[in-house]
Amino acid sequence: MAAAATTAGARPRRAGHLSSLSFIGTIPFLGYVGVFLLLPTGIVIWNAVRDPAGQFDLGSLKLLGNSAVRSYFTGSIELCAVSSVIGAVLGAILAYAVASGNPTA
Hints:
This protein is mostly helical. The protein has helices spanning about 25-50, 65-100.
């Protein structure tokens, strides 16, 4: 194979070079993340450090040591673990069925 000839002084284009419009496809995703993930998280954090009068107060954070809050958190983690294991097992079974299936049948 013959190498492509370049003119003197011209630099070859780098493989990883991106044009200025290459990230335009991520705008809807970033908008979704901002509106449905970052904004609610910010609102919860903002309201967690304020008292009912609207003043800055970290007193409500000591409620995290309450036994009821700890049991709710533990229950939430257990539910998350069980549902993720069930999803992983069912997903693995489905992936195996798709991968081992006969595509001509």
